[in-house]
Every structure is written in C-alpha cells, then in structure tokens.
Write a structure and sequence with these properties.
Length: 422
C-alpha cells in the first residue's frame, strides 16, 4: 500500500515517542522507505539506535552535521521525501512550526520541503486545550499541514482527555490514505531528466487503417496524442526517439525520427526494422485487431436488391507480443485500452504477452482517452513475482507522459543494472 513511498518520520520529545517505534515497523511493512529524524528531546525518551534498527537507515539528529552538510544534507533530505510525518508532534514543535521557525533539523525540513506534512499531536490535555495551542493548530492547518488527532483517553501523567497521540495502527491508516492522495508518482519511481541519454526509444502511436477498398477502411478513434506526448517526454529524458505513427492530425515533436504508416502490417514491419537499435519499445498505438482478408481493388458499389454486406476479417499481427519475443528484445511496454475490468485485462496482457510494463486506461470514459487532452492510467509491472501498480492522478497527456516516462526509465535502468550483475 505504500510501495516505494518515501516517508520522513520526525519524532519530537514526549512519552508517546515509544509508539513511533511500532509506527515505523508498520510503515516498513506496508512497503514504505522510512528515514527518521529525532529532536534532542525525543532522544531523552527513546534512542536513535532503535529506529536505525527498525528502518534500516541512519537516524538524523543534527541540523549542522558537518559530514551531511558538505552536500547540503538537510535540503536533500527535504527534497527526498514524498511525505513528512511528525509523530509525536509536541506542543513546542507545533508552536515553532506555526511561527515558521527553523532552529533544529526537524523544523528546518518541514519548512524546506514541498511534500505534504502530517502532524500527530501528543501532549497533556491542558496543553492541548490552551488557547495558544489551539491557535497554533488552526494556523498549521491554514498552512496546509494535516493534523492526525489527537485522541482522547488516559494520559501518562494521570489526566484524562484529549491530547493522546493516536495509536500506531490508526496513524498508519491515515498515512496510507494521505499517500493515496499524492499529486505525483512516488519520487523513488521517478528517474531524473537525462536518464535515457544515449538510449533509443521506439514508440508506436495513433490508429491504424485497414483498407476495405480504395475509399473505405476499418479504424478507431485514437488521436495519437498520448503516444506523441510520450515521444516528447522521451526526448526530454535524453533519448533518441523513433515515432512510428498511424494517420493522425497532430504535429510530431521536433527531433524525433517520424515513420508514417497506415496499416498494422506496415507498423509491424517498421517496428522490426528498428528493433535491433531500440532499448525501450512502447506500444502506444491503437492497432486494429482485424483487417479484411481481401481488400477490393476498386470502390465497392451497392448492388440492386443487396441490403447487407459481409466482410471476411482476419486477425492482424500482434505487434507488441512480436517485439516482446524477438531475439533482439528491447525493454517492452504495452498499452491496454479497455472499456471494462481495465486493470484485470491489463494484468493478463502483461503476463500473457511477456511485457516488462503495461499502461492501462479506460477508453469508455468520454473525459479521458481517445481524442481527449486528458488521461488517467494505471501502470502495472511484475517485481520479484508480485504484481505492482501505480495510478498517477488524472492529468493533461503532456504532463502524464513526463511522469510515465520517468517511471519507465527508472524500471529500465534498474533492470539493466540487474542484468549487468548477473
């Protein structure tokens, strides 16, 4: 549920700090990459060694660590996180964050990040109800911080009331929900721009036309916008790009090697011509599944008394499956344009066609997909025998293509590294 999500867990001073150990374990179990930051007060209640053992990463405790600061460590840490969670968030930390202070590592990171920040208040019930704390809570929410709790119950001092930090299981559920609302894909899956420098990406795009006669053809509503956007994104990632396009009405990005085709057979032949020089193949075209067995040489005329016409259709070649089993097989990414059970059909195609990744979208929706400038997709792949999925937010195809290409580049580079080590 948190696969590849980078969570920076901040721990401030308070008896509730012991609960954060269990929270760390739950986040790790859910698939998150967790880094821990502790204030000086937090270290009076629980040791950094505990969190180092649980997270598998060094614990950060000092703002001006000479070794880390040689590389602007605190800024890099702020950029690294998809989410920042402060649990427990003491009254002191909340006050300093509300005032915009950055006088220790934790408050500096919260001020320097563009990630969403979640706070789990934990303090004595009288401190929570104090007008200053309530004002700070309102100010933090106005800044965009999300408060998780506090809960109500018996406190360590013996008081009863609001101020208890929520239980780790409750916090984990809220963090998972917040991760699901991220406005972009997790940073761990985002390869940097230029990550495909020296590589060749071949992309098919648009529809195909299967001739019935010299005038008529079988086709579909694909505009080619998604494939062309991916071609532009691949260029920005530093790749050389072959764009094999069916008949479309849009301009190809400057810098691509445009190969114009009409039919599925032509698209397959063009793909095989460049396959040995291709590192990544992305089959974004909406290829007609069938074509007439015999296309008429002349325009077919209506015949007197003939009220129907029967066309004998045969199956077109499966381009992406052919590429995926080729001896010069590149990293192969398919598309699944479906109208029902979208993810299930896509997962089946991923395995059945031996693809590295597949991008699924629901073309039954009129607000996305064919001819629309917007799209919403699910990206699926296998990792160590387990199906993984990622669902970026609906976005303009140009913006979505940038995220998809960085994810594809990240998986390609990771697989290439693994292959090199074998």
């Amino acid at each position: 549920m948190l696969a590849k999500v980078r969570i920076l867990l901040g721990i401030s001073g308070g008896i509730a700090a012991y609960k954060s150990a269990e929270l760390t374990r739950l986040l790790i179990k859910a698939g998150a990459d967790v880094r821990v930051v502790m204030t000086e007060g937090a270290q009076a209640f629980i040791t950094p060694l505990t969190f180092q053992a649980l997270s598998g990463n060094p614990v950060h405790t000092h703002l001006l660590d000479p070794e880390a600061e040689a590389g602007m460590g605190h800024i890099e840490l702020a950029k690294w996180a998809d989410l920042i969670v402060v649990a427990p968030a003491s009254a002191d930390v909340m006050a300093r964050l509300a005032a915009g202070m950055a006088n220790d590592l934790l408050t500096t990171l919260c001020l320097a990040t563009d990630a969403k920040v979640l706070l789990a208040p934990a303090m004595n019930q009288a401190m929570w109800h104090h007008p200053a704390t309530q004002q700070n809570a309102r100010q933090l929410e106005a800044y965009g911080y999300q408060l998780m709790g506090p809960g109500q119950g018996e406190q360590a001092c013996g008081d009863v009331g609001f101020g208890r930090m929520l239980e780790p299981e409750q916090l984990a559920d809220l963090i998972i929900a917040a991760a699901g609302e991220l406005q972009s894909v997790p940073k761990a899956l985002m390869a940097p721009q230029g990550s495909l420098s020296g590589k060749t990406v071949t992309i098919t795009a648009g529809p195909t036309r299967e001739a019935v006669d010299p005038v008529r053809y079988i086709s579909n509503h694909s505009s080619g916008k998604m494939g062309f956007a991916l071609a532009e994104a691949a260029l920005k990632a530093g790749a050389q790009v072959n764009l094999i396009a069916g008949p479309v009405q849009i301009q190809a990005p400057a810098g691509v090697n445009l190969i114009a085709v009409l039919s599925a057979q032509q698209m397959l032949e063009a793909s095989l011509l460049v396959i040995e020089q291709t590192d990544i193949f992305i089959a974004a075209a909406a290829v007609a599944d069938y074509r007439p067995l015999n296309a008429a040489d002349q325009k077919m005329k209506k015949q007197p008394g003939q009220n129907d016409l029967v066309l004998h259709l045969v199956q077109n070649p499966d381009i992406v499956a052919t590429v995926a089993k080729h001896e010069a097989r590149p990293f192969t990414v398919g598309f699944a344009a479906e109208t029902q059970d979208v993810d299930a059909y896509a997962a089946d195609k991923l395995v059945r066609k031996n693809l590295d990744m597949i991008i699924a979208n629901d073309v039954s929706r009129t607000d996305i997909g064919f001819n629309s400038d917007q799209n919403a997709v699910t990206l699926l792949w296998q990792e160590e025998g387990t199906l993984q999925s990622l669902r970026p937010d609906q976005a303009a195809k140009q913006d979505l293509a940038q995220d998809l290409m960085r994810c594809i580049a990240s998986r390609f580079n990771l697989q290439s590294k693994d292959d090199a080590q074998v």
